[in-house]
Design a protein that fits this description.
4 strands; about 80 residues; binds zinc ion; alpha+beta; globular; single chain; two-stranded antiparallel sheet
Length: about 80
């Protein structure tokens, strides 16, 4: 049994004016996003990053670590 599921959603890290280098979209489990959006509590991305997410229309690159982990969770198709 794995504790991970594929029920994830990409959430953007908010910009804080500290430069562009750390702006990535991270994957976060959906069941962590809901309480976060209601209560403003931090979420933990698949890569381990913890922050308070905010929806942002800008299109950031996907965090490479999250992407690797997320793709590893997908059922093999070939
Ligand atoms: Zn990440």
């Amino acid at each position: 049994m794995t504790s991970f599921t594929t029920d994830t959603e990409t959430v953007l890290r908010p910009t804080t004016g500290d430069g562009d280098h750390d702006r990535f979209a991270h994957y976060v489990k959906k069941d962590e996003i809901l309480p976060s959006t209601i209560e403003g509590t931090p979420v933990k991305a698949l890569c381990g990053k913890v922050w308070i997410p905010s929806r942002d229309p800008n299109n950031f690159g996907v965090c490479p670590t999250c992407k690797e982990i997320y793709e590893g969770l997908q059922p093999g198709d070939d």
